[in-house]
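Lecture notes, continued. The same structure-token format from the folding unit now serves as the input rather than the output. Read the line below as a description of shape only.
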């Protein structure tokens, strides 16, 4: 566990540094262009390469040394970061430079994360898997919460190029830690065995591995469906809040509500979660759905903040428990490709949700709850009418859908009994 904590600490520093750069470059891009479309395109560049390349990254993680895969991926990301800083110092930075650097870093993430997410199985006994996964979620939560605050202060003091330099230093710290720690080999003959097959064959083997285990396959489909609905909420919460409040209130909602992620991650890191991980997944998915439902009930900053806190609180518990199931039930020799394919399929729901969220809100739900809308004198009497209330209705429906999907999942034997039906590949120590 101590060795894992060293690796985790290096990645924590790197995540905070990357968050600083993400915030600073977002500010630079919007101030330079004033375009929401170009700002959104940066997020597409940050997501799409990862989704496309993660299955290949997982296959490579199974046939190559995972430590060196993380080191190489982090090194390329560091070079991209340093390049952006140098271009900015010389006043040569163009929009396409930024898109290219973000896309390359996203592609590196597609190789780094499948290797990094399998490290608990290399260093930690099964009884500490949930705790280790909680630590990983804690690092992500800390990056999301601390980076915007720090970056907002540092941009004024050392400018955007200085913030990017700090990110580069954080990469160096993470790399030095990785260089100092050897990774145990999963199998002495593993790399030779996989070298006889192509990467596409390895990805196909990962899909066949999941497909042959109905419990894992149905659990993956459940997450794809719920991720799609959560993606709708993720995009639309900002316009819903801004329909009745200002940007300062929105920031307070994100800050206070988002602290729930940190609390949930700390809880998982210290407690370790339920003995039956699938019960934790479904229990907190239900709480997540209820929180989304509550957030859409009224245009109230206090109500939305409370709902956001419990929603964010649930996420690290869900992810940590879900990862623990896969880490125990999937053969370590194929975890890289299986985990990467699982992530690519589940995360593919988010870009799809991002594309549909705007049209659904503007052309389907919002007209229903205008003052003279079709539902103004029925549902409108309960949740209100006017700007943003159509999005509130969509939140209500999404929350109800997530809760119903969770109830169905619990009553589906393949999901409820996934921990009983599949053998453990990693035994408690």
């Amino acid at each position: 566990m101590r060795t894992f904590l060293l690796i985790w600490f290096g990645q924590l520093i790197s995540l905070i540094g990357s968050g600083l750069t993400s915030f600073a470059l977002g500010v630079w891009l919007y101030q330079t262009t004033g375009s929401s479309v170009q700002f959104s395109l940066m997020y597409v560049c940050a997501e799409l390469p990862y989704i496309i390349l993660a299955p290949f990254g997982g296959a490579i993680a199974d046939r190559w040394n995972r430590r060196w895969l993380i080191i190489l991926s982090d090194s390329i990301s560091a070079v991209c970061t340093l390049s952006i800083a140098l271009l900015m110092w010389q006043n040569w930075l163009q929009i396409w430079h930024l898109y290219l650097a973000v896309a390359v870093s996203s592609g590196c993430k597609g190789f780094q994360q499948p290797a990094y997410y399998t490290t608990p199985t290399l260093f930690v006994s099964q009884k500490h898997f949930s705790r280790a996964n909680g630590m990983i979620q804690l690092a992500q939560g800390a990056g999301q919460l601390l980076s915007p605050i720090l970056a907002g202060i540092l941009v004024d003091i050392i400018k955007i190029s200085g913030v990017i330099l700090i990110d580069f230093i954080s990469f160096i710290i993470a790399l030095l830690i990785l260089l100092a720690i050897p990774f145990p080999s999963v199998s002495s003959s593993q790399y030779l065995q996989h070298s006889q097959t192509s990467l596409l064959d390895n990805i196909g083997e990962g899909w066949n591995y999941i497909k042959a285990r109905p419990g894992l396959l149905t659990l993956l489909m459940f997450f794809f469906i719920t991720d799609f609905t959560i993606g709708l909420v993720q995009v639309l919460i900002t316009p819903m809040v801004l329909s009745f409040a200002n940007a300062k209130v929105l920031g307070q909602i994100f800050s206070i509500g988002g602290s729930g992620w940190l609390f949930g991650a700390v809880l998982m890191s210290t407690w370790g979660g339920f003995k039956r991980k699938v019960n934790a997944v479904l229990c907190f998915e239900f709480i997540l759905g209820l929180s989304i439902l509550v957030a859409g009930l009224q245009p109230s900053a206090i109500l939305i903040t409370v709902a956001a806190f419990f929603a964010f609180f649930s996420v690290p518990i869900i992810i940590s428990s879900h990862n623990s199931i896969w880490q125990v039930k999937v053969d370590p020799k194929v975890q890289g490709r299986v985990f990467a394919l699982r992530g690519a399929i589940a995360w593919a729901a988010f870009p799809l949700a991002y594309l549909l969220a705007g049209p659904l809100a503007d052309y389907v739900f919002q007209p229903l709850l205008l003052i003279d809308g079709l539902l103004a004198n029925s549902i409108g009497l309960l949740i209100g009418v006017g700007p943003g209330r159509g999005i509130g209705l969509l939140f209500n429906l999404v929350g109800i859908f997530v809760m119903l999907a969770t109830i169905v999942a619990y009553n589906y034997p393949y999901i409820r009994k996934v921990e009983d039906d599949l053998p453990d590949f990693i035994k408690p120590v």
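Point for the exam: The domain at 198-418 is CATH 1.20.1250 (Growth Hormone; Chain: A;).
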